[in-house]
Amino acid sequence: MLVNSPIQTKPARFHSMPFQQGFTLIELVVGIVIFAVAMVLVVSFLQPQVRKGIDPIWQVRAASLGQSISNEILAKPFDQNSNQVGGMERCNESVPCTASGALGPDAGENRGSYNDVDDYHGLNDSGEAIINSLGLNTEVDGTQIYAGFNAQVSVFYDQNVDGIDDTAIGNKKLITVTITTPGGQDIVITSVKGNF
Fold first, then answer.
1. Where are the domains of the chain?
2. What pTM did the predictor assign?
3. How far apart are CA 174 and CA 156, in angstroms?
4. Are 80 and 94 in contact (CB under 8 A)?
5. What percent of the chain shows pLDDT beyond 70?
6. Distance of alpha carbon 138 from alpha carbon 64, whole angstroms
7. Which of 193, 169, 175, 171 is nearest to 100 (CA)?
8. In this structure, what is the dihedral angle of CA atoms 131, 132, 133, 134, given to the nearest 10 degrees?
9. Are strands 172-180 and 139-140 parallel, antiparallel or unpaired?
10. How far is residue 44's CA from residue 30's CA, in Å, rounded to a whole number?
């Protein structure tokens, strides 16, 4: 027996789509511009802070390098004409010391063969040219630790230790080691070597 069942159909409904809301192109462009301005302000504030963060590291390296060079120089005899093997004779007694205008390395000398304090006068090394007292490269794990640094040395007679070149032979030499960091800051180490 067949049962007549009416076919059930769903009434057609028209779904009304709600109005979709979003950002317009103008709103997006304005948002990007505001974000860009905010980023420029943040970066311009942080950039000097990053620079200040590296300065202490450079200062420590510069001080260490300056002290190392100063120690190397002070370990040398006062003058070329002083007894180099620790005898009692010193220049300005029976032999004159090196003339003021002749301070600096002697002919044919390089840093490895400097044998007195004034040989360092005029030393000017930077970056990879900066070596230690053994003449070895100053790199760690393949990186130059003094890249961007500059080391300069000045030596002159300064009997009254006033920081002014006496331009005459005396019994005291002022040694000034100036290390310039990559940021342009000078770290200056001065010492006096006496003719003893």
1. 29-194
2. 0.70
3. 6
4. no
5. 85
6. 12
7. 169
8. -90
9. unpaired
10. 21
